[in-house]
Amino acid sequence: MRAFLLALVLLAAWQAYAKLGGIDDFLLPAPTEIATAMFDDAGLLWSDFQVTAAEVLLGILVAIFLGVACALSIHLSQTLRQTVYPLLIASQTIPIVIIAPLLVAWLGYDLAPKLAIIALVCFFPVTVTALDGLRSVDPEVRKLMRTLDASRLEVLRRVELPWALPAIFSGARIAVTVAVIAAVLAEQAGSSRGLGHLILQAIPQFETARAYAAVVILAAFAVVLFSLLTAAERLALPWAHRSQVEGERS
Amino acid sequence: MTAKTVAKPPHREVNGSAEISLHDVARSYAGRNGQVQALDGLSLHVGAGEVVAVVGPSGCGKSTLLELVCGLQSPDRGTVSAGPAVLMPQRDLLLPWACALDNAALPLRIAGMGRDQARDQARPLFEALGLEGFERSRPDELSGGMRQRVAFVRTLMSGKPILALDEPFAGLDALTRQDAQAWLVDALTAQPRTVLLVTHDVEEAVVLADRVVVLSPRPGHQIAALPIALQRPRKRTDPALVALREEALIALGVDR
Questions:
Q1: In terms of CA atoms, which chain A residue is nearest residue B86?
Q2: Cβ contact (<8 Å) for B97 and A239?
Q3: Superfamily (CATH) of domain B12-84+162-174+191-256
Q4: How many CA atoms lie within 13 A of A164 on its CB side?
Q5: CA-to-CA distance for A168 and A174, rounded, in angstroms?
Q6: How far is B98 from chain A, CA to nearest CA, in Å?
Q7: Residue A48's pLDDT band (cuts 50, 70, 90)
Q8: Whole-number pLDDT of residue A93
Q9: Residue B59 has pLDDT above 80, yes or no
Q10: pLDDT above 90: residue A92
Q11: Do B140 and A240 make contact, defined as CB atoms within 8 angstroms?
């Protein structure tokens, strides 16, 4: 409710600035113009949204799978931790716009390069949070498991993986927000469909309001995905949620 | 201390017995300000089925002792030989995502047993400790006393003959602690085990143990041993028990 009020105030300020601030419509359309564009171009936006949404959803799934797999292998192998992990961290400093055209050249104009780009951008937060989760197990619990003669695999299965699940959910929530940006970048690197492509086309055509409408739709999509993940976590990991509440109380 | 030479190299061995033997054990660990000598010259023997309580001032190496017995550490000097031992830590360390019965059955699952069979095997002991009706409760829905009962069932379900109890009731309030001591006595009467109990609470030691061992301040070694030849269950107000408690406190140097 408060978030809604804040959004209203910001929208009103934006509207006032765009209409009274003397700024060109092509630089900054007013919220009312964006709303009009959203209504007028609903069909176009909807069909492009479906393309981008599919890319984002699939990309996130690939990223979570890759991220958890990466975290597990780094966690289980000290060699990988010392060799691969620094490279992974370094790889995150590569601006994706540099390699996006390369990926398009390799993988074509279809879904594959988009998935690759989204997964590349999103797997890292999942890897880092999952790895932290796996390593955050109480050392006393590790001792207890040792006196219960638990094998490495049993410790992983019975303790470390469930222990890391809340962290993996946090990683997935971060991934969702960057996935949307990654999808737009991927589409702009080479695509004939999707909201990223629509934005790229709209700007030189002076359809700025339409481009902003696409951005609003992407933002709303990210917020919905984020909330869905939060709800899914509460359903799937009620124990984690409850102890969080207790932690806040104390 | 370094002048002391030993014929045998320091080692810890697991044998098939239910006994614990430590001979002239020394162990240090890396503390914040360099090496800390936790134990030095500790010798201790616990017979099969015996309940021995170890009391001593804070930081006298009691936890180190238990980890040596459980095989989580090896001595720097001397020998530790003991049968298979399981640790019961001060905090219950129940897995928050698993229900109470599954937490109790954890050692069986680790040993490769299926879920239903493990639950069935854990259930009788679970009920014997007054936990009936709480099988499906998650740990955060249980009181501290009940969580410690679940942790104790888990400890027994490991099937190991030696229990290493590390101040298991220190986190409980006074009344719950007395209750916990009572069910511990009952459970050990029904299922005798060799117990090495580390505690700060001299009364707890005297109520529960066959023998109370007093450790010196760090580096810890044995400075007194008090056999407690009283029938169980014991009354805290029993004059004989009160006298033994006094004796232990004097050995600890806190008799005022």
A1: A147
A2: yes
A3: P-loop containing nucleotide triphosphate hydrolases (3.40.50.300)
A4: 27
A5: 10
A6: 9
A7: very high
A8: 86
A9: no
A10: no
A11: no
Residues of A within 8 A of B95 (CB-CB) are 141, 158-159, 162
Q: Does A243 lie at the interface with B, CB-CB under 8 angstroms?
A: yes
As given in the structure block, the two tokens for residue A23 are 């700024």
Instruction: For chain A, give the percent of residues with pLDDT over 90.
Output: 62
| Measured CA angle at B230 (ends B227, B231), to 5 deg | 140
The residue of chain A with its CA nearest to that of B99 is A239
> Using a CB-CB distance cutoff of 8 angstroms, which residues of chain B are in contact with residue A146?
70, 72
A157 Cα to chain B: minimum distance (Å) = 10
Could you give the CA distance from residue B137 to residue B97 in angstroms, rounded to a whole number? 10
User: Per residue in B115-168, pLDDT tens?
Assistant: 999 999 999 999 988 899 999 999 999 999 999 999 999 999 999 999 999 999
Q: What is the pLDDT of residue A206?
A: 87
Nearest CA in chain B to A239: B97
Q: Crossing angle for the helix pair A208-236 and A31-40, nearest 10 degrees?
A: 80
Distances in whole angstroms, Cα of residue B256 to Cα of each of A108, B58, B220, B249:
85, 18, 23, 9
φ, ψ of residue A243 to 5 degrees: the values are: -70, -30
Please give the CATH number for the structural domain made up of A48-234.
1.10.3720.10
Position A133 scores a pLDDT of 94
Contact A158 B111 (CB under 8 A): no
Task: Map tokens 């109480």 to a residue.
Answer: A138
Q: Is there a contact between B138 and A239 if contact means CB atoms under 8 Å apart? A: yes
Give the pLDDT of residue B256. Answer: 57
Using CB atoms, pick whichever of A140, A146, A239 lies closest to residue B96.
Answer: A239
- Residue A203, number of CB atoms within 10 A of its CB: 13
- Chain A's closest residue to B97, CA to CA, is A239
Could you count the other beta carbons within 10 Å of the beta carbon of residue A166?
21
What residue spans define the domains of chain A?
48-234
Q: If pLDDT is split at 50, 70 and 90, which confidence band does A247 have?
A: very low
**Which burial class, exposed, middle or buried, applies to A57 when counting CB atoms under 10 A from its CB (0-12, 13-18, 19+)?**
middle
Contact (CB<8Å) A146/B72 = yes
pLDDT of residue A244: 47
Instruction: For residues A195 and A214, give the distance between their C-alpha atoms in angstroms, rounded to a whole number.
Output: 6
pLDDT in tens, A98-134: 888 888 889 888 888 999 999 988 999 999 999 999 9
pTM of the model: 0.83
Residue in A closest to B159 by C-alpha: A148
CB contact under 8 A, B158 and A237: no
Task: From chain A, pick out residues whose CB is under 8 angstroms from the CB of B93.
Answer: 138, 140-141, 144
